[in-house]
Each structure stands twice: as structure tokens, then as C-alpha cells.
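Suppose you are handed a protein chain with no further information: no name, no annotation, nothing but its sequence. What can you learn? This example shows the usual starting point.
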Amino acid sequence: MPYNMNFLRYPKEDHFDDVLNGAKESFAATGRPGNITIPVSGVNVTQQGPAIVTLLGGFESLDEIDQLQESVISNPEAWSRINRIASMCHHANWVVSEILSGVPAIPANYEPKVVSRIFLSAKPGLTQDLISGLMEARENTEADVKPIISRPITGPIGMVRISQIATGLQELEELSQATRQAAVKEGVPDLVSQSPIRSVGRIVHSNMP
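A reasonable first move is to predict its three-dimensional structure. Written in C-alpha cells, the prediction is:
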């Protein structure tokens, strides 16, 4: 089962550029595929600063996650760099997620510029039903680039994430609408316990295979 890792960093006032540059440096040092996004529109206007999100992909197992984290922790330079970036943030953490749907095929010359992430919480006892419904909805969409269905390995057990890349906000809205319509047909709204939370980020740095 493939996995990915997200670094979420919430810069302190006047440190946004410093944190972004540090995130790019740290990302490049891993040599892994992924991207860095900054918010198109904040999820919560009261939160402490916008999140800079670094996505690291290409992990085929949890053993590979172990190897990366252990190599960073045991490398004084890398660990110091991560702590230095974190000191310029209100808070920072990494989130490991299991990719349930597999990674979508990317058409040639396709250049994603934005990413949507939607978080859903299943009603108690209905997590697997929610996952199954989302997977069916994903298969029933005709998009060239299908969304990724994943779930964090920590936090609420019933949380599931839908991630969608697009070349711009208009295409993102069209793809999201198609996914919503397919999800409704699969009864997904009846399986969630609260209103989904959505964030949209703009890709400012990437390393795609």
C-alpha cells in the first residue's frame, strides 16, 4: 500500500518567506517527488497564519517512511534545519497518510497548479462504507486526472481525505463538482458525521516524476 507524508507549517508574522524558503530547501534535500503549496483561500480566517504544506510522495511502504524519518532525525544538519523552520512557525507537524485509491496517472504535459483537499469524518461504524462509497464515486468520474482517496494513520479513525490536482481554479471547480455528483449517487452525504472541511492550495514548488 503506498503512503505519503505532509509537513504542515503555520508561519509566524513576518516569517512567511523564510519558512517557505526553508521548506523548499528541506524538500529538495529529500530528493522525493511531491510539491509545496500555499493557500489560495484560508480554511479559517481566525487561524494563526496560512499553512505552507509540503507533500512528500513515492513511499511504497511504512518501512520507507521509517527510513526517511530516521535518516532525518539522525542527521544533525537535516534535523537542525527542520527545527529552525519550526521555530519560525506557530506550530508545525508532519502527517503520514495511507493512499487508498492509488496514485492517478498524469497525462503528458499536464501541469497542475492548484490542489484541493477535502476532509470528511465518517459516522461511527461507517468508515469502511464511506471509503467504499468514495472509491466507487472516484471510479465513476470521467476525469482524466482522478482524485486521490487517503486517510491519515493518526487522528480520528473515521477521517478520510480527498485530494484533487488541477491546472487552475476553474478546472478544479469542474472536477470537484463531478466528484460531488458521483459521491451523492453513492450516498456519501449520509455517511459523514459533520460538514466536510476543504482547503485549496497553489503549487509554488514541485518535483514530479
